Amino acid sequence: MDDWRSKPRTGRAKITEHSTEIRILLAEGKTNRQIYNLLTNKGLDISESQFNRHIKKIFRPHDKQSKSQLFNSEVNEKKCDSAINSDISLPYEWNNIGVFSEKLITDLENNGYTPSIVREWGLPESQIRQRLIIENARQKGK
């Protein structure tokens, strides 16, 4: 087993080291294989299947949605008032502070938290959910 199963949990870290470059290449329209080949030439040492899984999960989380769902979400965002729209953050802002779970991101945004607020907490993703629960309990107690 020379692929990802021999060293679990190292692929995401290796991918996030190159996150800005990957975003630029995806924006240019490069395919996953082209990006993988470029990064392996620069020293990335994970399998292509693992690379594709991480790209799909980290950088293309909304590919599962149909076009109608995307359109409806865009319409709903436009209906929000401007104050709320200014607080809505892009997924890569959450990824930059180490929050990758889509469910956690939506829960944080629904409760009014921005990436800058969560960054001030200085917690890893695994503990941010606990902090959110505590903060919500404090607000309900007031």
Question: Notable features of this structure?
Answer:
142 residues, 68% helix, elongated, mainly alpha
Description of the molecule:
- The protein has 142 residues and is mainly alpha-helical.
- The protein has two domains: 4-59; 77-141, no CATH class.
- The chain contains ten helices and no strands.
- The N and C termini lie far apart (55 Å).
- Residues 78-87 have low confidence and may be disordered.
Topology, please?
Layout: H1 11-17, H2 19-27, H3 32-41, H4 48-59, H5 67-79, H6 82-87, H7 91-96, H8 102-110, H9 115-121, H10 125-141
The level of helicity is: 55-70%
Which whole number gives the mean pLDDT?
77
The ordered string of helix (H) and strand (E) elements is HHHHHHHHHH
Question: Biggest β-sheet: count, sense, barrel?
Answer: none
- Spans of 5+ residues with little confidence (pLDDT < 50)? 78-87
Which of globular, elongated, flat, extended, rod-shaped describes the shape? elongated
* Radius of gyration from the alpha-carbon trace, in angstroms: 18 Å
